[in-house]
């Protein structure tokens, strides 16, 4: 059947109340109401499968834990389960002393007796009786006149009074009385007041003290009008009922029009003291009013609700298990999606909101002011109810760059520059569109790693930085401006398609020096369009994150660009890594010039090619001056072999030249000790030097281990003086096999025919002890120089 063209033919509107001097619209809520949870009664009676005693027990304990002090636990006359549950709570002493349990009964003698029997022995009980009072119920259900309806309420209230007094006398149970003119919102307002006044008189003991007050519960048993109408009815009731000070006015809104929350809030403004409802709004039909929603609404106004939902997920878990009803994903405060934004503009605003709030809070903290929550689209801090920010931003095809950037920042700590956000957004958007699904955080982080070759392991690209050195030297150009006078030289070992190569370049900064090296050695030619950086983490573990945008060289008309990201404990290192990250994207699978390992080490080969051979074969990252020195050796040797040397020839030549890896040297250190002297500002070396089988005790002092050792051997050198021109070291090997390799360039000066003659050479040594490797490198150099030691 279609909807009616004229619904007024079937449905009549509510009758508005002509309330004079209406007060509630200009009031505000400033304190929480008394809460009554009726989950175990009104909520329970609405379930297809009412709760078992075990479920009711768990639910009851959860309510107690949340801080509810009044809990309607059963309709005891309804079933053995309900009756037995009340007996169990009392028998097992499960009711805390400050908690009132409430039980409901209709106005029928047999059921009232059974209900009061159920609470005998309980410390504090609220006996709740109801009878329907509105015209339809009077006429149809009870077939009673107004007078008969009032009489029914009076008669049974008197019975309740008599039986509860008897129970108090016998068991010491403290009782309060709650009366509900059921269907209050459909009852004539004056009749509701009349019947409650009569009930109060029949009860006969309402007083102003908290525990003596009679409770009049005014149910919107069925929500038949807008919330302002309910508020009007409540304000009318509050102003007309006698002895208002001896009464608690309670609300019991249902949610048939979906305005139960609004009705409860407005009716509190209208004068109510107490609210009955269920967690997450379970209950008959569309449910009772949701107490969690009401309480958290107060909380977000800065008013503590005096019930605690700090771990809302745990509460949801118990409630959904007991009710066997799921919570809607959009349910206020509790739904799975209520702290989630999928749409781009929401995500953007949330991201900016968090950033701005962090700054605001820092300032507020420094001047002792409140840290007020003010994040777009998030009325409450999810953390306050035990939720994480994990789900705040989720990505699908409706999302924008801001949300994706937020997630990258949250999960990888990387705060991408705006243009990079746009570039990465397009990558994610393509996935979301193509696969028509939500893009998970795992998808986003792994796509980011793949796109920018970030995170090592399987994500790394064709070019991987192993180590580098940056040097400065004054510019050769006399016309350079102040501040531009330095040239930067990059000298690094980079894996190129798995082969370690030594690349060198120079520029006016580290990044341009690397780009120059890539151009020179690998014909990779790009320029930097933008660069930015920020710190990642705090304190000692802080690192630098750099972002680079590369474009093809020449006039910048192209829209094509490649972004890269690099993270390193060293800021220059992070920039270099960012360049390589972008280069890896830019080159794709284009072929790169190979390192020719077996031919061409004649005059046409460069120093870095030779250095590449050494690093690949012996894992030695030669200092630049040693590279130059050895290159000269290679060139001289190549001349004698028609300009051609094989890879193996070069390696052997290196070993032979520097006696590297030669186990039987003429000189060795038998034992040594390095002490701190002069408050640790200087070092004192003492040990035994073995020279061609002879043991020579030596000792000396210096400002560091090497100078101390040098001074120790000095007096035993046959003639001349020794000094160290250059020293460097690096680790070699991995894990437990790691050693230190030291490189020492030793200079020997001798007077020959009144002229000072200077010769120098390199010594290289590896040892598990870094000081040991340095000393051995000095000896190796001495041996390579052909020095003689006296005993
Ligand atoms: C708005 C609310 O939520 S009110 C609470 C509703 N909750 C429940 O009903 C859950 C528990 N109920 C039950 O277990 C049963 O209904 C019982 C045990 C209370 C009564 O069961 P029964 O005796 O079989 O009667 P039934 O369920 O048909 O109830 C209707 C009878 O109670 C009367 N009645 C209904 N409400 C009331 C009341 N508040 N006061 C007095 N009598 C009432 C009806 O007029 C009707 O009487 P009739 O049999 O003389 O016509
Ligand atoms: C018994 C009353 C309070 C009731 O549950 C209702 O009217 O909804």
From TrEMBL:
Top-level taxon of origin: Eukaryota
Organism: Thelephora ganbajun (Ganba fungus)
Protein name, per record: 2-isopropylmalate synthase
């Amino acid at each position: 059947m279609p909807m009616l063209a004229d619904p007024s033919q079937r449905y009549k509107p509510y009758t508005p109340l002509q309330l004079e001097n209406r007060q509630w619209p200009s009031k505000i809520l400033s304190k929480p109401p008394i809460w009554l949870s009726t989950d175990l009664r009104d909520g329970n009676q609405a379930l297809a499968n009412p709760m078992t005693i075990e479920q009711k027990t768990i639910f009851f304990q959860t309510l107690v834990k949340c801080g509810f002090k009044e809990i309607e636990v059963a309709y005891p006359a309804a079933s053995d389960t309900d009756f037995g549950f009340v007996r169990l709570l009392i028998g097992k002493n499960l009711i805390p002393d400050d908690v009132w349990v409430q039980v409901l009964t209709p106005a029928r003698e047999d059921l009232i007796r059974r209900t009061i029997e159920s609470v005998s022995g309980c410390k504090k009980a609220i006996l709740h009786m109801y009878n329907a009072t509105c015209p339809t119920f009077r006429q149809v259900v009870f077939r009673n006149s107004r007078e008969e309806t009032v009489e029914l309420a009076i008669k049974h209230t008197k019975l309740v009074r008599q039986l509860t007094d008897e129970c108090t006398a016998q068991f010491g149970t403290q009782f309060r009385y709650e009366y509900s003119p059921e269907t209050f919102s459909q009852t004539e307002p004056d009749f509701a007041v009349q019947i409650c006044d009569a009930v109060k008189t029949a009860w006969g003991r309402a007083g102003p003290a908290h525990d003596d007050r009679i409770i009049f519960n005014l149910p919107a048993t069925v929500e038949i009008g807008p919330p302002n109408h309910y508020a009007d009815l409540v304000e009318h009731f509050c102003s007309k009922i006698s002895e208002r000070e001896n009464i608690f006015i309670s609300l019991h809104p249902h949610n048939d029009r979906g305005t139960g929350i609004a009705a409860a809030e407005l009716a509190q403004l209208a004068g109510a003291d107490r609210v009955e409802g269920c967690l997450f709004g379970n209950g008959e039909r569309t449910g009772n009013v949701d107490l969690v929603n009401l309480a958290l609404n107060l909380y977000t106004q800065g008013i503590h609700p005096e019930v605690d939902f700090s771990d809302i997920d745990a509460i949801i878990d118990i409630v959904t298990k007991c009710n066997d009803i799921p919570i809607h994903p959009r349910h206020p405060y509790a739904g799975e999606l209520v702290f989630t934004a999928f749409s781009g503009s929401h995500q953007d605003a949330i991201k900016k909101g968090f950033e701005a709030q962090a700054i605001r809070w820092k300032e507020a903290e420094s001047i002792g002011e409140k840290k007020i929550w003010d994040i777009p689209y998030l009325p409450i801090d999810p953390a306050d109810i035990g939720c994480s920010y994990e789900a705040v931003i989720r990505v699908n095809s409706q999302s924008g760059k801001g949300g994706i950037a937020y997630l990258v920042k949250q999960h990888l700590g990387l705060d991408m520059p705006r243009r990079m956000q746009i570039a990465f957004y397009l990558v994610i958007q393509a996935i979301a569109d193509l696969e028509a699904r939500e893009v998970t955080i795992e998808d986003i982080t792994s796509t980011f790693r793949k796109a920018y070759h970030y995170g090592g392991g399987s994500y790394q690209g064709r070019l991987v930085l192993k180590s580098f050195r940056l040097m400065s030297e004054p510019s050769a150009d006399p016309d350079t401006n102040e501040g531009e006078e330095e040239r930067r030289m990059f000298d690094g070992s980079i894996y190129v398609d798995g082969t370690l190569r030594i690349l060198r370049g120079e520029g006016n900064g580290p990044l341009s020096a690397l780009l120059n090296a890539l151009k020179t050695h690998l014909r990779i030619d790009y320029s930097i369009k933008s660069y930015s950086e920020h710190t990642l983490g705090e304190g000692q573990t802080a690192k630098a994150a750099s972002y680079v945008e590369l474009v093809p060289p020449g006039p910048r008309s192209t829209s094509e660009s490649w972004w890269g990201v690099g993270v390193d404990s060293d800021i220059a290192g992070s920039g270099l890594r960012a360049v390589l990250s972008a280069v890896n994207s830019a080159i794709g699978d284009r072929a790169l010039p190979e390192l020719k390992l077996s031919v061409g080490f004649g005059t046409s080969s460069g120093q870095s090619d030779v250095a590449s051979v050494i690093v690949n074969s012996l894992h030695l990252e030669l200092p630049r001056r040693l590279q130059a020195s050895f290159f000269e050796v290679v060139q001289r040797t190549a001349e004698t072999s028609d300009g051609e040397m094989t890879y193996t020839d070069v390696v052997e030549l290196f070993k032979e030249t520097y006696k590297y890896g030669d186990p039987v040297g003429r000189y060795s250190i038998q034992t040594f000790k390095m002490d701190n002297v002069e408050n640790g500002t200087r070092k004192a070396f003492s040990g035994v030097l073995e020279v061609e089988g002879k043991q020579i005790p030596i000792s000396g002092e210096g400002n560091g281990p090497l100078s101390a050792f040098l001074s120790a051997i000095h007096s035993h050198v046959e003639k001349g003086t020794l000094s160290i021109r250059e020293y460097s070291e690096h680790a070699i090997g991995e894990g437990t096999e790691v050693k230190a390799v030291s490189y020492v360039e030793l200079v020997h000066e001798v007077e020959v025919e009144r002229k000072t003659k200077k010769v120098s050479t390199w010594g290289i040594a590896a040892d598990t002890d870094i000081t040991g490797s340095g000393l051995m490198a000095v000896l190796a150099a001495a041996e390579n120089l052909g020095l003689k030691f006296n005993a």
